[in-house]
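pasting MFS family permease for the record, 421 residues
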Amino acid sequence: MSDDRQPADGSREGRRFTAYLATAALGRTGVEAMTPALLLAALTLGRPPLDGVLLVAAATASAALGGPFAGAVLDQVRRPALAYAGVLCLTCGGLALLGRLMTFAPLPPLMAVAAVIGIGHPMLSGALTAQLARILPAWRLPRALSLDVAVFSVAGMAGPALAGLGVTFTAEGQLLLVGAPFALALLPLGGMRLPRRAAGRGAGWPAIGSGLRAMVADRVLREVTVLTSFTAFAQAGLVVAAPLLSVALTGGLRWTGVLLVTLAAGNLVVSVVTARWPLRGRPEVVVRASAVAYAALLCLLGLVKGPPLTLVVMFLAGTVTAPLFTGLFRTRFERSPLHVQSGVFGTGAGLRSFSFACGAATLGVVAQYGVVWCLLAAGLAQLAGLALGLLTHAPWRPAPPPREPGVAQDEAPVPGPAGAL
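structre below
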């Protein structure tokens, strides 16, 4: 490509990436707002608290099971943008319907609607990240992935805050408010200009397992998938421990939000820094090192005393998750073929949702014996994930993944040297 074409191409790629960030931020904010909004809506209507918990469980379970399906759909459909538009409309409409039904309907149909809504969540998390290889050249992926991790942090802070804004509304109004980000995400979606798939690639139902097969076939992918699934398990323990830490520090729950925002802020700061100066080295090594640091900080968090030290350790715990997930995303791009990357990312998102739910249930029981034991168990779980992941490790062999017929070189999913921007 001639030099006079590069600025125009760079400007076009920049606009597409900006549209991607806006779409991801809005969609993921809505996803993060759903859990507290469902709980608050149930309480607003005077329904038993268990109803809200079961609605969240239905949405989470369908997200975990729907990850491979969502990824396969994106890998097979000719127009991925239309699939995303459909999911956004389905989620927005489903929340409006759920808010209406909650005023009079029994629990089973409400859980069915929540489950339908949750199926599309992996498309807005991991499977959306997979589209970066289709809108950016390979050499821009390291920086783009760091910013994508930052979007997760922003959504993690903005989502609960959005749900909190609706506490004075009716239950229906609360869920309509949470549905607003999904509707707004339709506006920048077209600016991503996701390329169409070639005709005749459909593989039907067998494609649903393509992401999982790709993850199992590659030992490095298998390692980081096992490791980060245990990271999600440990993260659930940290969320469970936050209100208990608040009570231990202040005698009340008012510091719960402060602790979780501090955690997200640490992730956000490092994500922005590594977007400017990407980490060098093999991504799976970065994932391992980050996992060790995260396990140590979880254990340390259970031992430190006083608000200042607790806030410092929470912030540091957030900082190490940023390179961990950036390394995970880079590994998926480098080690999986382009035509199944949505399946790999979608399946990974589903596994993480399942692991988080298991962690919340298991470590919630452990927390009854004290917050220290909860955090120590979370740290040990992360180390167990590291050990299990290493059992599947093999020396890194950079073999180019299979290419789709007609895929241009600048659409290849394998980034150049780490940090080359």
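The domain at 10-139+151-187 is CATH 1.20.1250.20 (Growth Hormone; Chain: A;).
The chain is about 75% helix and 0% strand.
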